[in-house]
Each structure stands twice: as structure tokens, then as C-alpha cells.
Amino acid sequence: MAAPRWARRSRGHVRGGAGGRHVTPGAPESCDRLPGLPRRERCPVRGSVGARGMVAMGTPLPLLFLPFLLLPPAAAAARAAGPGLEERLFQQVRDHFSFQTCGNETFPQRYLVSAKFWKKGFGPIFFYTGNEGDIWTFAQNSDFIFELAEEQQALVIFAEHRYYGKSLPFGLESTQLKKTHLLTVEQALADYAVLITELKQQYGAADCPVIAFGGSYGGMLSAYMRMKYPNIVAGALAASAPLLSVAGLGDPTQFFRDVTADFQKSSPGCVTAVRRAFQQIRDLCLSGAYDEISSKMATCNKISSKEDVYQLFGFARNAFTMMAMMDYPYKTDFMGHLPANPVKVGCEQILAHRDPVQGLAALVGVFYNSSGSAQCYDIYQLYQSCADPTGCGTGPDAEAWDYQVCTEINLTFNSNNVTDMFPEMPFTEAMREQYCQSKWHVRPRARWLQTNFWGGDLKSASNIIFSNGDLDPWARGGINSSLSPSLIALTVKGGAHHLDLRGRNPADPPSVTEVRKLEASIINGWVKSAGMERAREKRSGASAGGRL
Asked: Would you call 353 a catalytic residue per the annotation?
């Protein structure tokens, strides 16, 4: 997801901490049973992807025993993001819902803080609910929060999600079996609630209202914070938050249908060319022409089986997903190094080739080979299938996300080659259960988010903005119509995945400028209202205290 996303997720290699062999969900038994035509990723190869698609991962910190720790300035300066950000650690409780002695153990949770614009003791607190990746990645791609903080004199905090980046409850063993049980949405929200409460005390900010921000999965968490902890959070901006999709609500064909629609809007001939390329790969597979597939798709290792072809389909579909999500009007390095308008660039690539398969190789290269220096594609290294058909990414963060989409978060999207341009690649609830039981020894709870976080029945909540871009394939899985005067849906026309959280850019579509103005105004209203309510409570308390 994105999200802001938004950062995550060998040929049948033994994968990460779960032990056992990795199995590609839905892999076919033979070429003639390859479902229709091709498949992909979420928020995306999370993290920064180089020419060969390797995701940069941080080295976990050793366990520390100070409640708060300020890292040396050089550590933060090396990864400068928003104005004045400093990297710190907070000793967080491992298990918020256990009262046993072992449940009171702690781990170092990383957070970033900037008081550059803060009116000490009076300005609001803008709190980013970190999602599935290194917190610096999100801080470096959420400049709107800093622009708004300057206007409203706010303290800015970016909190890292447990089990991601350097916030590892069990160190390097965190994603091993029997160590993942504390990776839940509920624990993450409790982390944020505790951290906010402690930091308000530390900063003398007891009367400062808190506004939660987040994009993609982080946007879901910001909304959940307002719903679960309204005593702590006065309002939330949930950007590109697929609250309905993850709760198992909606159409499983929607995501890849909307990815296809993005490419169709860019160039009608593009979708036709993509379909033709996938069909030709399937035909070559049926005839046993694996060498030709390998040559035209420039794979590092020869395609030699129907499993390899299925992997190739997933690898290719992932590139389309990422390009659709990150279809910004300027160059970005958020989830890979992408040019401005990557969907348009990708379509130009495939349409410039007479051979559709070679054109497909050029198109996916917009994502996988942005530097132009890669000589071939290692399709098992660059893309690893998981319980999220939109993609988990690679590395430790990918393992953590794979576990989450095997437990609470539901993402059973599929492509079918009818409503979308990709090969038929089913991913049913039964397939998900089989994969998750084999990989993590867990059974997904398909309806849990509907019960615990209200599903689509959010009308009793308040003070949440749900923003979505109409180019974002995650948009239809979120809230797209206002539910009440304080549950407000905003649409960014010409906007990709949580574009509104990014900073101002001359290439921005006019719609995102207007949406940011609306968001700023609404948030300012929440802050003022919370301040007045706090003042009334103080006056009421003083009046009551004066009586005998």
C-alpha cells in the first residue's frame, strides 16, 4: 500500500524469518494453465530502489535503556529531511495489552522531531503515524506537513511503526517465527498514543492539540488514531487511506482495473500493446520458446519453466502498479527513481517498439532500470510475491508487511485479463490462507478490521479528512464521499498516491493546491476549536474548585 506508502517487502529462496520455502501464491502447473494473460505491488517496492532494484535498509540499533535518547547530530544530518528534524529514541513498551512482567519489557522506538516552527506551549502538534518502512522515507516525502507547521506554528513529530526501520521489538530477530505476534495495528496505535502522551509532558505541551497525519497505510492509522484515541488526537488527515479495501469491503478486481485505467487515459494504444505483449509471452511459453522470452525480456537467468513465466508476470505487473501509484508530474525518489509522469513515459516506451515483448521490457525498465545501467533483470530479486498482490517490496520491512497482510489487513486483489490488461492471476481468500499458514503459521482474520475499526460505518467518528487522488489505484478502496460535516472527503484531480502530503511544486495540478488550502483551513479550525474547548474546561475546573 502507500500509502505513503509508502519501503517494503530467489528463486524459491528460503525467505527471511519465517523459515521454510517460499511459495508463489497461485503459481500454475503448466503453460497451458497460465491464467489468461499477466500481475504486481503497494504501496510498492518500499524503500529506495537502485538500478538493480536493491532496497536500502537501515541497521537496527542495539537496545538502549534511556527513556529518550537524542542521537548525535551527524546521524540525523546525514539524512536531512524536513526543517530541523532530529532523530530520537523512546523506550516503548513491547506489549501494551499484557500485565505480566515479560510484557513490560521495552524496545527503542525511533521518532523524528522538529520544533523549528513551534510556538512553545501553545502551537499544535502535527504527528505523523508512521507506516510500513523507515520513518525517514516518509519524512522526506511529506513536506506539506512542514509547510503547514510553519503557518500554524506547530511541533512536528514523525513516529516509526514497530517492526519497521530501526524500531524492532526483538532486534534482528523481530520477523522470525514466534517473534511477530506483537506486530498488530492495535499495538502500533498504542505506541503512538503512549509516545504522544509522554512527549506532551516532556515538551510542556499539555494544552497543545494533536493532529494526526498519514499516507496510505499511515493514513489508515491516522484515521484509526482519531477513532480509537479521540482524547489524544483532535483530528486526522488520512491521505490515500484504503480503509474499505483493507477491511475486506469492495471489489477484488478494482485495483488492477484502475491501474489499467491510468495507462488507458495516458494512451489508448498503450493498453492494447500491453495486452499483446503478455499474450505473446504466453504463446511463447506454450510453444516452449523460453529462450526467446528470456532474450526479449532481458532476464538475467534463463526462463525455463511455467513458474518462471508466472514470476515474470508478477514482476512486470509490479512495475505497472508502482508507476500508476507514483504518477507524479515531476521526478521523485520515493519508492524508486521515477521520471515525471512515469505512466506516460512507460507508454511511450512500449509504443516505440515494434516487438511488443521488447516494448514491455522497456516499459518495466522505467521502474526497474531508471539509471539505464542494468544489463538484465533478476526477476526473483527485484520482485518477491507475498500475501499482498500489490507487492511487499524486499528486505526485512517486506517480511513485516507480509505478516501484517497475513493477519489483519486484507488485500485479496486479483487481475483477470477481462477488466484489466494483465494476465489472469487469482488471489482468493483460500489461497491467502494457505500461503499464510505455510509461511507464518497464522490464519488471516478476514473480517476483523470491520469489527475493530468499524469497516465502512464511520458515521460516529469526527474530524477526519479523507483525501484521494483520481489517478491513484488505491482511491476507490477508500472514503470518497463526505460522511458528515466533520468527516470530509476531498479529491485531487490529476493526483497520484497521497500527492497532497508532498510539498509545493511548480508542476502541481491546480487541484492539489486547492485541496491543500482546504486541508489547512479545516485543520486550523480543529486546532482553534480544541483550544477553546480546553480553555472552557479550565474555566469550568477553576469555578468548581472555588466552591465549598
From this structure: no
* DSSP-based three-state secondary structure for 96: coil
Q: Which residue has the cell 481468500?
A: 429
Exactly one of 48, 167, 174, 216 is catalytic; name it.
216
Active site residue 385: no
Which is the catalytic residue, given 327, 378, 388, 472? Answer: 472
337 catalytic? Reply is no
CB 347 within 8 A of CB 319: no
Contact by Cβ (8 Å): 134, 160: yes
Phi, psi of 382 (to 5 degrees): -80, -25
The model's pTM is 0.87
Which of these, 483, 480, 485, 455, lies nearest to 468 by C-alpha position? 480
Q: Would strands 464-469 and 235-239 be described as parallel, antiparallel, or unpaired?
A: parallel
Give the DSSP H or E segment for 106: strand 106-114
Confidence bin at 17 (pLDDT 50/70/90) = very low
Q: State the SS3 of 195-224.
A: HHHHHHHHCCCCCCCEEEEEECHHHHHHHH
Q: Which is the catalytic residue, given 96, 161, 497, 498?
A: 497
Would the pLDDT of 181 be above 90? yes
- Beta pairing, strands 125-129 & 155-159: parallel
